[in-house]
Amino acid sequence: MTTKKLAIVTYGCQMNKYDSERIAGLLQQADYTLTDDLAQAHLVLLNTCSVREKAEQKFYSELGHLKRLKRQRPDMLIGVCGCIPQRARGEILERAPYVDLVFGTLNVSRVLELVRQVEEQQQPVLEITDRVLDDDLGALPVARDSRVTAFVSVMHGCNKRCSFCVVPNTRGPQVSRPAQVVLDEIRGLAQAGYKEVTLVGQNVNAYGVDVRPREMDFADLLEAVNAIDGIARVRFVTSHPLDFTPHLIEALARCEKVCESLHLPFQAGADRILKLMRRGYTAAGYRDLIARIRDAVPDIALSTDVIVGFPTETEEEFLETRRMLEIVRFDSIFLFNYSERPGTVAPDLPDQIPHEVKQRRFDGLLNMQKRIALAANLAYEGQTYEILVEGPSKKDPTRLTGRTRTNKIINFPGDPALIGELVAVRVTRAGLYALEGELLSTHIPIPLVSV
């Protein structure tokens, strides 16, 4: 059988990344091989993101580029999947009739059948499902980019209805994957030599609340993953402050494989804006939660999401967000100008903030956060840390790159044979986005946990 080339362009979050790896795993069963060269691909799939307007703009720009490629190669198949089709449905085929396949976030397990349908019918195929298919919750083949670290989905969708967020419309209500399926996938990764897993979901803290009878909550799941031999590190994203229970805080402190790194979005620092966002907590409540987490895990590194320019946000309310950054001192932030998302409540609010005001606030926060982040990184200089070697450095392939348990990127000279190993590295220089170091020890044993 002739081998065909597959190119997947992924936009957005870790869930999309994981979905792309599952799509690749399924299509490899039909003798597709992955390529980064879109011009040589027989099938190009764009796995889209709808959370921010900018991500949609990037997608449509790439779609225009593919139109030109398809003129040169009419046999090329173009597919669009992910969050934009789930929201826009047939709109993509109306705007881009040269697209051959459109499917949503809940149709991943069907991709092989859908591609075959396009090849046989020689006409566009559109399939959007509004509920999670049982096969999507199960064990699908996954073609992972890394042989060291891996994403593992623990759930689909989200039951929170934040007024700015399109995720419930694009990924549906929360559906937790069966715990045994998740744990079996991670055991398989350990047997294959993977050292780190990241548990992913729109709100992992709420894992299990939709299951009746209740099987386990997220803290229980962390404990179970922590007990899997061969796995050295466990991370998770993303968390919602409302679902960060005392039980989960205890698990963070108790599970030695769970890394001291937490992404916990606060979005805005003013209570009135948080209420309009439908976040369900106050700024003081968020800071109290951070204090309790730091009491339990003193060395934890924190990151967050922040939106500036939410409708009706005053200058004083923006300064409350600024004060939140000054008080908490996050290691890193993901900062966004508010953008209207179809199907959400926030665009209907009065007093939309002008772009120039949003940008001024954005720039001010970013500059302040850069100073905070650099100060945090400088504290690492001269210290020695356990590093999981992930591969060659992107900027200098002659060097190795890895991460601290607190999720700091560090580049250092070393033998490529160390990829996948835990090593000791001393930090020699700290920059804003990464650390530089020197290798001290080439092997640190993985802790064994008795069940």
UniProtKB/TrEMBL annotation:
It comes from the Bacteria. Its main location: cytoplasm. It holds the Pfam family TRAM. Its EC number is 2.8.4.3. Binds 2 [4Fe-4S] clusters. One cluster is coordinated with 3 cysteines and an exchangeable S-adenosyl-L-methionine. Residues 144-375 form the Radical SAM core domain. Residues 378-441 form the TRAM domain. One of its GO terms (cellular component) is cytosol. Its cofactor is [4Fe-4S] cluster. The keyword Transferase applies. Gene3D superfamilies: Methylthiotransferase, N-terminal domain (3.40.50.12160), tm_1862 like domain (3.80.30.20). InterPro entries: Elp3/MiaA/NifB-like_rSAM (IPR006638), Methylthiotransferase (IPR005839), Methylthiotransferase_CS (IPR020612), Methylthiotransferase_N (IPR013848), Methylthiotransferase_N_sf (IPR038135), MiaB_methiolase (IPR006463), rSAM (IPR007197), rSAM_horseshoe (IPR023404). PROSITE patterns: MTTASE_N, MTTASE_RADICAL, RADICAL_SAM, TRAM. The keyword Metal-binding applies. [4Fe-4S] cluster 2 binds at residues 158, 162, 165. [4Fe-4S] cluster 1 binds at residues 13, 49, 83. GO terms for molecular function: 4 iron, 4 sulfur cluster binding; metal ion binding; tRNA-2-methylthio-N(6)-dimethylallyladenosine(37) synthase activity. Keywords: 4Fe-4S, Cytoplasm, Iron, Iron-sulfur, Metal-binding, S-adenosyl-L-methionine, Transferase, tRNA processing. Monomer. Catalyzes the methylthiolation of N6-(dimethylallyl)adenosine (i(6)A), leading to the formation of 2-methylthio-N6-(dimethylallyl)adenosine (ms(2)i(6)A) at position 37 in tRNAs that read codons beginning with uridine. This is tRNA-2-methylthio-N(6)-dimethylallyladenosine synthase. It comes from Tectimicrobiota bacterium. The lineage of its organism: Bacteria, Pseudomonadati, Nitrospinota/Tectimicrobiota group, Candidatus Tectimicrobiota.
